[in-house]
Design a protein that fits this description.
heterodimer, A: about 150 residues, alpha+beta, Immunoglobulin-like, B: Immunoglobulin-like, 5-stranded mixed sheet, about 0% helix, elongated
């Protein structure tokens, strides 16, 4: 009886492992999904390169905590300021990372945070200015230990 | 359980731009992981963080599962007058946490 119980547990673990493997394959976002998420935010407006500086380490050992700094070149006055900063990724289960809403009172358009990366990929930051224009920057990151979908 | 940590300078000059650093202890479970028995672990994250300065919102962030556990967020604001900074985190499963910091503007 005890023997059988152990067997069932082993099988459950095996099935669990299998499900986890299949799950990992299923939940990856794609660059297309990232583009769709970006379109959702910017609409039909053009996104230009520049004014945004995205600082992420080029080589990451642990994808569970990756430091992220976004600086936007803006005078941050009442008439010319950064409204929003969005950060997107290509290969995590979801394309969004964070969306930050700022105002002229920020004084300086700079945010620092930590995020997860499930794979080596390109990270994109997009800033929306008060005049409605969008600016972006991208960074390539190589990850050795993936995050988000790992088992426990 | 969820202990917030706030780092704000105690004294600043009027018009000075200063940094506010915040961290809250939270698992930020993505909802994409499986337990050893193959069950999906439900999502449990902080979804919204906001900061107000004397009642006026100066910063707001929408967070997604891609944020690290114990979300750290640092940002800047300009010193206008002495008062309090209020921080608020809300998330899944009715999670809600607040913290305050006082600041003296010279």
């Amino acid at each position: 009886m005890g023997e059988r119980k152990r067997g069932a547990t082993r099988r459950a673990v095996l099935i669990g492992g299998l499900a986890a493997t299949i799950g990992v394959e299923k939940v990856r976002a794609t660059p297309e999904q990232m583009r769709a998420a970006i379109r959702n935010v910017v609409g039909a407006a053009p996104v230009r390169n520049g004014r945004v500086e995205l600082d992420v380490p080029p080589l990451v050992e642990n994808g569970n905590t990756v430091s992220l700094v976004v600086v936007v070149d803006s005078p941050m006055t009442a008439s010319d300021y950064v409204k929003t900063i969005h950060v997107f990724n290509e290969k995590n289960p979801q394309p969004n990372v964070i969306s930050v809403h700022l105002g002229p009172r920020a004084g300086k358009a700079k945010i620092s945070t930590r995020f997860r990366l499930a794979d080596s990929q390109t990270v994109t930051a997009i800033a929306e200015m008060s005049d409605g224009s969008f600016w972006s920057a991208t960074a390539e990151v190589i990850v050795t230990l993936a995050a988000c979908v790992e088992g426990i | 359980m969820a202990r917030p940590l706030i780092n704000v300078p105690a004294k600043v000059k009027r018009g000075q731009i200063f940094e506010i650093k915040t961290l809250i202890s939270h698992v930020m479970e993505t909802g994409y992981r499986y337990s050893t028995t193959g069950e999906r672990i439900p999502r449990d994250i902080v979804t919204l963080f906001s900061c107000s300065y004397n009642g006026e919102e100066i910063f707001r962030a929408d967070l997604y599962p891609a944020m690290s556990a114990n979300p750290f967020i640092a940002f800047f604001t300009m010193a206008t007058e002495s008062g309090t900074l209020e921080f608020k985190w809300t998330g899944d499963n009715g999670f809600s946490e607040t913290a305050t910091a006082t600041i003296t503007v010279e």
